[in-house]
Specification:
The complex is a heterotrimer of chains A (377), B (398) and C (264). Chain A has 377 residues and is mainly α. Helix content of chain A is 81%, strand content 1%. Chain A has three domains: 2-44; 49-62 and 167-377, Orthogonal Bundle (MetI-like fold), CATH 1.10.3720.10; 63-163. The longest helix of chain A has 34 residues, at 343-376. Chain A starts with a helix and ends with a helix. Chain B is globular. Helices cover 64% and strands 9% of the residues of chain B. Chain B is of the alpha+beta class. Helices cover 39% and strands 24% of the residues of chain C. Chain C has a six-stranded mixed sheet with strand order 6-7-8-3-9-10, with helices on both faces. In chain C, strand 9 (227-232) and strand 10 form a beta hairpin. Classes of the chains: A mainly alpha (377), B alpha+beta (398), C alpha/beta (264). At the A-B interface, helix 2, helix 10, helix 11, helix 14 and helix 15 of A face helix 1, helix 3, helix 4, helix 9 and helix 11 of B.
């Protein structure tokens, strides 16, 4: 061990008696845990169960001969994510390398576990995502197309996935599509609620406030379940699929949170901005649309991106309305007696995937925050 | 635009009348639309239920539930005395919901207490001078916050608690804690009978002195009071101690004695505590970071050590800042108990589901459950606001 | 240069702002007490007074940013709304009046999400319904007038305080106001930037713009003002030419105030 490492260890681990004591307790425990985990991952765990059930985990009971639709959705999602990334993160050499490597690792594992075709399709989707990232970052005209592009992407995914029937959607695909759809639906609704809460018209204000506060006080699972059971009562003749009813519940619930974020953004706009706009003779509408909202939404964007994670995490609750999301798919595999000993393998895999996606969303939200803080000065 | 001409009024009288009228009309229109929606909803629901031959009513609440719950206490009357007794199928539907609420509150209150303590520790850990502790705390917070709570609950239940050894093989940790797949058993306190009033008084004195030790300043005074406490405690012991430890004893099918937590309760409590601790840690860390650096520097210039600064200067200020965020966290945590249904823990939402399935009374139940959650959220924010007002009020008068 | 050419002639002196027995309070705090004041067309009126004396409130009342409780306030022939009037609405009427009244704030209040050019052009586009190209051409000329043509595409965050305040003046001018209000336009500026803003205001005054200025720059007041008003505790204590007020103040309090201000 060289002198620099010793100095580092002294400063960071053994600076004071208390730190030393902590280090002496933590280091052996941590080493043992890491060792045991590594032994389990590399030697004891039987990862074949993941490969065997990958199709169920990713798409649930989606018909196998229609899987090209799911692959289309994956490519679309990669492109949409890349485009979103292009708005805030510069595709520098390190960032590109990291993303390309991650894509390559995922594609290679897909190729090893499922087959060369799956590997190639995964690699292609990743490449598409990177291309969208670089493209959007480079060209200003592409940047203007991102928002309509995202909306068109969601519509396209729905159009391509729906023919076999909404009841067949499942697995990670269901979780992701639900998350994206709900994230988009909540924004306009949330903005309207926030404006309503600040309206000069008393009755509107009271109604919006009551809605927001009620939604924020009850559990998500209750709202989703309730919307699911009440929609068939209201429209007995139309049979609306569970998935759409579920999405409505999520959107109604999370819109209240969006409204609160937007409200905090509105309050962050200095009073002088409204005064200046009014002194120029602008109408209330112009003041809101041209001056206040653009500034408020800018402040709110990181929170809204962060909320995508809440929606994604909340998407696990669709089990209550009988849908099979990623987590539920994992549990279904464990319910098969043949896999009963594979509890840890499945859960570790589920955790890893959830953490990878959640971590990416958190990372994007933080980068956006830093980006906007730099931009607005 | 006209100008030099004689002054026009701010608003012409006709326009003024129009504005006043349109304001009222708008108000009325909004109220009418919302009321109309509500009535339409109610009528549609009534029709739908009518087709099934059901009427919207809360009468079913007093019917016998005919369901069984794995745990939960309900208030009942023993003669004239109100008592709490375990739920049984002969109790009414209303009592079933109360048992569910009891279970939810049990988890929520314990988790609130535990996550506040652990969260604060982890939050301080994130700012530790020890690199390892700092990064471990960070990793814990990130892992928890970036994965869904539901998978955490399910994982704790299926992959941890149900993997504990069976009760008869479970080891007895720290002399009294039994962790087995049929539940976790903690040592409790039992009140011994036939003990004199004097020893109760001595015990009370000992507890009071112990609290006083924490409150008063000055080393010598602390030591004196501590001596009094120990004296009182030993005197009480000599007279026949009024309290005794009730240690659980493992048996073939579980354990007897002590405080028993069912496996479901253990899993959901662990999951929610760990989950909320991560959020509390972030709240605490954010609050510590938000304090001006001058506070640390001023304390250091007075010669205070880092732990002293943290305890005497930083944390008291932090608790003022974090209260509103903590209140929000506590509300979220209480709502999170509704996920108990995923592992069969009979919380309020789960019991509501069971009762609804049994009776077909989905909509009535939703109204009740919604009101209960609204009330819980409201109570938590009222409590925290009161605390906040008291703490911050003190800060100003001092 | 339409914005400038359309300015009314400086010679006429009938009142454009007329204030009579104006009373304004915030809750129980009586800010303005029985204020009487006329501002003539083409006149440059400077309002001075200690901080908290109500001078900013007075100027904000003239633009309808504050509502008064009683009295009469007309701007360009229109009644400004009282507090009671505003409660029934009438945003449209107020916005119409404000189009003829420019306002420059202490904190500039530029729109941070728009370039300097867009800041100047937005109101003509949205309020007057001008075509964007046309409005931007005018905006560019106005920016040129305040010496910022080459900064037109910068955002407020990239400009110095003095530059921001000049953009703010250009923004007000774009609405072709018949009167300009300045609420301590140089108080938030670093000393070395005060001059550039005052230069622009001086130029405006020379061109005959009607101006009502709240300021602490006494030298500037003496130079450009036609009349100076001294406000003390919400009352107008003295009105007169700069020479009268600065050299021969008739009130003891005016003297004390001036001696305190001018000493520095």
């Amino acid at each position: 061990m060289n002198a620099a490492a010793l100095r580092w260890a002294h400063r960071n681990l053994f600076a004071k008696p208390f730190d030393t004591a902590l280090s002496l307790i933590v280091i052996p425990v941590l080493a043992w845990v890491l060792y045991a985990f590594a032994v389990w991952v590399l030697a004891e765990a039987r990862w074949e169960v993941i490969g065997g059930s990958l199709k169920v985990l990713m798409t649930g009971i989606y018909p196998a001969e229609q899987l090209w639709r799911a692959w289309f959705a994956l490519a679309m999602l990669c492109a949409m994510f890349g485009a979103g990334l292009g708005l805030s993160v510069r595709p520098g050499r390190t960032a590109l390398t990291v993303v390309a490597l991650a894509g390559a690792v995922v594609a290679a594992s897909a190729a090893a576990v499922v087959g060369a075709g799956a590997g190639a399709l995964t690699a292609g989707s990743a490449a598409l995502g990177i291309a969208a990232w670089v493209g959007v970052h480079r060209s200003a005209s592409a940047r203007r197309l991102v928002l309509p592009g995202l909306l068109a992407g969601v519509v396209a995914i729905f159009a391509v996935l729906s023919p076999p029937g909404f009841e067949l959607w499942g697995g990670l695909l269901l979780s992701v599509v639900l998350t994206i759809t709900v994230s988009i639906l909540t924004v306009p609704f949330g903005i309207l609620l926030a404006l309503g809460r600040q309206s000069r018209i008393a009755s509107l204000r009271v109604i919006c406030t009551a809605y927001i506060e009620t939604m924020r006080s009850v559990p998500l699972i209750l709202v989703v379940y309730w919307i699911w059971i009440i929609v068939p009562l209201l429209a007995p003749d139309a049979s609306i699929p569970s998935l759409l009813r579920g999405m409505a519940g999520y959107a109604l619930f999370f819109a209240a949170y969006v409204a609160e974020y937007v409200r905090s953004g509105l309050q962050a706009v200095p009073k002088g901005q409204v005064e200046a706009a009014r002194s120029l003779g602008m109408s209330s509408w112009t003041v809101n649309v041209d001056i206040v909202l653009p500034q408020a939404l800018r402040v709110v964007v990181p929170s809204l991106v962060g909320q995508i994670l809440d929606i994604f995490n909340g998407a696990t609750l669709v089990f209550i309305i009988g849908l099979t999301d990623f987590l539920r798919a994992g549990q279904m595999i464990l319910a098969d007696p043949q896999n009963s000993g594979r509890t840890y393998e499945i859960y570790v895999f589920l955790f890893a995937v959830y953490f990878a996606i959640g971590g990416a969303i958190t990372f994007a939200s933080r980068r956006l925050e830093a980006h906007l803080a730099r931009g607005s000065r | 635009m006209t100008m030099q001409i004689a002054q026009t009024h701010y608003i012409a009288p006709t326009r003024r009348r129009f504005l006043v009228a349109s304001r009222w009309l708008l108000q009325a229109a909004i109220v009418a639309v919302v009321a109309g929606l509500a009535i339409w909803l109610a009528l549609a629901v009534r029709d739908a239920l009518g087709r099934k031959g059901i009427q919207f009513s809360f009468g079913y609440l007093s019917n016998a539930a005919n369901i069984s719950l794995s745990e939960g206490l309900v208030p009942s009357l023993d003669g004239v005395w109100p008592i709490l007794e375990p739920f049984s199928p002969s109790h009414s539907n209303a009592q079933a919901l109360v048992a569910g609420l009891w279970n939810s509150l049990k988890v929520a209150l314990s988790a609130i207490a535990l996550c506040t303590v652990f969260g604060t520790l982890v939050g301080i850990g994130r700012l530790s001078t020890n690199w390892l502790v700092r990064n471990l705390s960070f990793a814990l917070v990130e892992c928890v916050r970036n994965t869904p709570l539901l998978i955490q609950i399910v994982f704790w239940y299926f992959a941890v608690v149900l993997r504990f050894p069976p009760a008869n093989a479970a080891s007895n940790w720290f002399g009294g804690l039994i962790a087995s797949r049929s539940g976790v058993f903690l040592p409790g306190l039992a009140i011994s009978e036939d003990v004199g009033l004097a020893s109760w008084a001595l015990l009370a004195a000992a507890v009071a002195s112990a609290i006083a030790v924490l409150v008063v300043g000055g080393m010598r005074r602390k030591l004196t009071i501590l001596a009094v406490a120990i004296g009182a405690l030993s005197a009480a012991g000599a007279l026949g101690f009024p309290l005794s430890f009730d240690l659980p004893v493992a048996t073939r099918f579980g354990a007897r004695g002590g405080i028993a937590l069912s496996p479901e309760m253990t899993a959901i409590l662990l999951a929610i505590t760990v989950n909320s601790s991560a959020y509390v840690a972030e709240i605490v860390r954010g609050a510590i970071d938000s304090l001006p650096k001058g506070q640390w520097e001023a304390a250091a210039s007075l010669g205070l050590s880092r732990p002293d600064t943290l305890r005497d200067i930083i944390l008291p200020q932090v608790f003022r800042i974090v209260l509103p965020s903590l209140a929000n966290r506590y509300i979220s945590l209480t709502k999170d108990t509704s996920l108990g249904i995923a592992i069969g823990f009979p919380d309020l939402f789960n019991v509501y589901g069971t009762v609804s399935n049994q009776t077909g009374r989905n909509l009535e139940g939703v109204v009740i459950v919604m009101l209960v959650y609204l009330a819980l959220s409201w109570i938590i924010s009222v409590c925290v606001n009161a605390l906040n007002a008291r703490i911050n009020g003190q800060g100003e008068t001092r | 240069m339409s914005a400038i050419q359309n300015l009314p002639a400086a010679s006429s002196r009938e009142a454009i702002v007329s204030i009579a027995r104006l009373n304004k309070s915030f809750g129980s705090f009586h800010v303005l007490k029985d204020v009487d004041l006329d501002v003539g067309r083409g006149e440059v009126l400077v309002v001075i007074g200690a901080s908290g004396s109500g001078k900013s409130t007075l100027i904000r009342c003239v633009n309808g940013l504050e509502m008064y409780q009683s009295g009469r306030l007309t701007v360009d022939g229109f009644h400004m709304p009282t507090q009671a009037d505003r409660e029934i609405g009438g945003d449209r009427e107020l916005a119409e009046i404000r189009r003829g009244v420019g306002m420059v704030f202490q904190q500039f209040n530029l729109f941070p999400h728009m370039s300097a050019l867009d800041n100047v052009a937005i109101a003509p586009i949205r309020v007057r319904g001008r075509k964007p190209d046309e409005a931007k051409a005018i905006a560019l000329r106005l920016l040129d007038r305040v010496g910022l043509r080459e900064h037109a595409h910068k955002f407020p965050g990239q400009l110095s305080g003095g530059q921001q305040q000049r953009v703010a003046i250009a923004r007000s001018l774009a609405m072709e106001p018949r009167i300009m209000l300045f609420d301590e336009p140089t108080s938030a500026l670093d000393p070395e930037m005060v001059g550039e803003v005052l230069d622009v205001m001086r130029e405006l005054a020379r061109e005959g713009m009607t101006m009502m200025i709240v300021t602490h720059e006494m030298g500037f007041a003496r130079e450009v003002a036609d009349r100076v008003v001294y406000i003390d505790h919400g009352r107008i204590l003295e009105v007169g030419s700069p020479a009268e007020i600065f050299d021969r103040p008739s009130h003891e309090r005016t003297r004390t105030f001036l001696s305190r201000v001018l000493r520095h």
